[in-house]
Fold this protein.
Amino acid sequence: MKEEILQKLKKIPLFDEIKGNDDYLNLLAKICKIRKYRQNEIIIKEGDLGSEMFIVYHGGVEILKRTRSGDNYTVVKLKADQNIFFGEMALIDDERRSATVIASENSDFIQISKADFLSLGNSRPEIGLPVTRVISKILAGRLRKTTSDMLTIFDALVNELKE
């Protein structure tokens, strides 16, 4: 099973900067735990505090967001073969979860806790820093997209008011 976990870690974009170093990946694999969830079981609930990230190892997930009126809508459905991970922000901050994630079928996940990641990063910064850098790039990309989306909405509102 350890070899399978190592192969999965190599496919996850979050670990791109260290995937060529088997020693680093072995140390990372040591802090990984396998968690099983049944179909329709909540893995992460929007608004809850989180302290771990997940990699879809086998199975799939559905990601939901809550509207201002309290209704849930499906953002996306994802499968393990897409090399999906979520909850990575919990490795670097103490904020609330931004979405709900539900197992769309009986599924297995690789879980990495914030405490274990920080401990590994403190003792082996050559592992923690590259992963943190990738998380930063992901967050920067999301911020740029949000800014672009907001400008598009603003432009549409301005054009609507002009008419």
Summary: The first helix runs from residue 2 to 11.
